[in-house]
Amino acid sequence: MQWLGTLLFVSKTLGISSWWVSTEDPAVSERLFLGVTVVPAIVAACTFIIAGWLRVVEASHSWLGGFHPTRIGWWAAVINTLGGIFFLVDAVLWYRVQASQATTIALLVGALAFFASSAIAWLEQCFD
C-alpha cells in the first residue's frame, strides 16, 4: 500500500508532471493540473494514511487501534500515520495555493515523520 502511494506521490513532489500542465486554455490547464498533479497526490496521501493505520492495528493487536504508548512499534505506526496526514494536507494545499510556504512545511513535516517512523521501526528491529 505504501509503495503504491510513493509511486503516485513522486510525480508531484519531483515535478515530473509539471510540463503537462502548461497549455494556452485555462480550463484545460486546470483539468490537467488536477488530473496529473493534485489527484495522484491526494490518492497517494490516502494510501499512506491507510498503510499507517494498518500498522497501528498491527502494533496494537486490535482493529480499533488502541492507545499503547509503551510499545515502540505503536509509536512508529502512529508517527507514520501522522506523516500521511501531513502529506494529505500538502496535497490539498497544493491545489488551493500551489507552491507556498505552507505546502513546503506540510511536505517537510510529513517527510520528517516518515523518517522518524522508519528510524523507530529500525531501532525496534535492532533491539527485538
Q: How is this structure best described in words?
A:
- The protein is mainly α and 128 residues long.
- It has one domain.
- Helices cover 80% and strands 0% of the residues.
Helix content: over 70%
Biggest β-sheet strands, sense, barrel: none
What order do the SSEs take from the amino end to the carboxyl end, as H and E? HHHHH
Percentage beta strand? under 5%
Radius of gyration: 17 Å
Distance between the termini: 25 Å
- Mean pLDDT score: 79
Specify the structural class: mainly alpha
Number of strands: 0
- From the spread of the alpha carbons, the general shape counts as elongated
Counting H and I runs of at least 4 residues, what is the number of helices? Answer: 5
How many structural units, i.e. domains? 1
Low-confidence stretches: none
Entry summary:
It contains 5 helices and no strands.
List the helices and strands and how they pair.
Blueprint (H helix, E strand, L loop, with lengths): L1 H12 L4 H4 L4 H35 L11 H26 L3 H26 L2
Helix pairs in contact: 1-3, 3-4, 4-5
